């Protein structure tokens, strides 16, 4: 079952993106390098609870 998660910027802590993931295949927190429009650069975005 896919669940909706929110990705937050590691620098400014703003929640910029939403996506889905399969908790059975990926039980750990998701981490991606994505563009943050407030930092104006690519930063690490982590899954928030």
TrEMBL record:
GO MF annotation list: structural constituent of ribosome
UniProtKB keywords: Ribonucleoprotein, Ribosomal protein
Keyword Ribonucleoprotein: yes
Gene Ontology CC terms: cytoplasm; ribonucleoprotein complex; ribosome
One GO term of the biological process aspect: translation
Coiled coil: none
InterPro entries: Ribosomal_bL33, Ribosomal_bL33_CS, Ribosomal_bL33_sf, Ribosomal_zn-bd
Family of this protein: Belongs to the bacterial ribosomal protein bL33 family.
Name of this protein: Large ribosomal subunit protein bL33
Organism expressing this protein natively: Sulfobacillus harzensis
Lineage: Bacteria, Bacillati, Bacillota, Clostridia, Eubacteriales
């Amino acid at each position: 079952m896919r669940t909706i998660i929110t990705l937050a910027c590691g620098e400014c802590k703003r929640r910029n993106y939403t996506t889905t993931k399969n908790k059975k295949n990926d039980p750990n927190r998701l981490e991606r390098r994505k563009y943050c429009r407030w930092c104006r650069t690519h930063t690490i975005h982590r899954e928030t609870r």
